[in-house]
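hey so i finally got around to running both of the ones u sent me last week. sorry it took forever, my laptop kept dying halfway thru and i had to restart like 3 times lol. anyway pasting them below in the order u listed, first the sequence line then the structure token line for each. didnt double check formatting much so if smth looks off just lmk and ill redo it

first one:
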Amino acid sequence: MLKEFKEFALKGNMFDMAVGIVIGAAFATVIGSLVADVFMPIVGQATAGIDLGQLYFVLSEGSPAGPYATLAAAQEAGAVTINYGNFFNEIITFLGVAVAVFFMVKGYNSAKRAEEAAPAAPAPPSAEETLLSEIRDLLAR
């Protein structure tokens, strides 16, 4: 049974998949940082500093009754809220990730096409071909 497990765990596809998952997890942190640290500040400036996370609608008042200055204050009072601002934030984050991944895949595909388009250097002639060429040249003289 140990031998069967070893064969299963060390199959090429299984190992490749494991490497892909590890690289994908590391890539997710890079993309997350790109969106949070580069893309979202630009969105914040474009929206004149409006914090979308603070947009909410109160379904039922808490104790004490509103109006509440912030979403945290409403939740602390026990109010039931619909947090549509958080939903907008998540949509913007998703679009940022999608754009970042699109440009990375586009760059990868461009590099791959350029590599495929570059002609490979011709292989040097084999020893047999070289010998035959020399014989041909000697016979030609």
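and the second one:
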Amino acid sequence: MDVVRILIAILLPPLGVFLQVGIGLHFWLNILLTLCGYIPGIIHAIWVIIRK
């Protein structure tokens, strides 16, 4: 299942984080990072998915 979440995180980083942790600090941080730049959002999303 993590492979699917990682693929979703590459396409839509906030959705990948939402599927892993729900609405919380990491979700809002990922939205901010994605708005600042797409690549930081992807890196953060993959980090959250792999970490848990």
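quick thing i noticed on the 2nd:
The helical segments are 2-11, 13-21, 25-36, 38-51.
anyway thats it, ttyl
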